[in-house]
Specification:
By secondary structure, this protein is of the alpha/beta class. It has one domain: Metallo-dependent phosphatases (Purple Acid Phosphatase, chain A, domain 2, 4-Layer Sandwich), CATH 3.60.21. It has 8 helices and 15 strands. Strand 13 and strand 14 form a beta hairpin. The chain is globular, with a radius of gyration of 27 Å.
Amino acid sequence: MKITKLNLIIAFVSILFLALFTFGAHQYFNDNKKDSEDLKEHAEKDIKENEKKYIKVDIVDEGGNLTEKSPEEEIEEEIIEDDMKKIEVNDDIGNESIEMTKTENVEEVLSVTPLVLSVPSKKRNNPDELRIGFITDLHVRSGFNNAGDRMLKSDFVNKINYFVEKMNNIFVPNFIIINGDIIEGTNVSSKQGIKELSFVKDIFERTTLKKYYVVGNHDLRSVTKKQFMQSLGINYLSKAFEIGNYKIIILDSNFSKNDKDIKPGEFYTRGHISEKQIKFLEEELKNTDKRTLVFLHHTPLWNVDIKSNSGLPDNAKRLQEIFSQNKVLAVFAGHVEDLFFQEINGVKYFVSPGIIKNKKYQGTFSEITIKKDKIIINMSYLKKDGSYRTVQIKED
């Protein structure tokens, strides 16, 4: 068989092409493997960096003392500890889906003039100790009584009243924070929303303890920010103040991506902190040497346990960097209806479920005690038998 020069050239090119293809494929898969290993290594490193002190949960009595636990309660403690190590975003939060709701009649209603509680006798004068009563995501709804008057539904009234009385008569904090989503707001007229906010205000006015309100996205489904302030008798949406050796900062996290106020009927938000709010935050952090606590409605977390970021503020990572750079002691939030407590880059983050939407943690509220850099949270929630259980959350 006669081999021509052309045949030799074709054979040589074919062998060369095959060699290059084999080498390229080998390199491609090796690079992909390396990239995959690098990603895994970075993810494990991020998780390791964020795994700080072990979080301990204990069931305690009303005085914060340890109780003798049954096997069932020991299991409950382990479940809560596991809850705090992860965070899951509800599917309907990211999409902000809206469901039509019908107004229901209610038999038990909030009285027009709630009983005013006696002035707490305890005084908090230690500048290194701070006590905070924390409740979030009330999502109150109203209905009509038999006389045709609009009133809050009794389930909400009972849970909020219990919290107010516990704060006034037993815990006696320096102040109370009502951390957003005070009303449900979905498909609720501004007239109704204003009335519901005023009802809630009446309950909290039962105590003379100082109280501060944070605006949530559900509130703004019904009322404007101006109406929110007017209904609650406040003149702020963001605020900074000092108590003893602590500075408290309240932020408004309800803006669109282009920093416009969220308004009823326009759109809903996963959470965004405007440039104006960030500038306010940075100025307040720069001008203090006190231990700083930040409160906002939306949960400022990102890449938590490699979970989806859907439903979390779009500039949460930037916020975290500001908190860490300025040595913020702790950040408190709600919105996602889940329980979370973790230290990330030197900052402690506590996220609490609300009083109604998380079936496991009904009626949730927290008593937060801060002594210098140590934070102890006594979180209470309703058991199936209708009584409250209190668990103590702290770094071990």
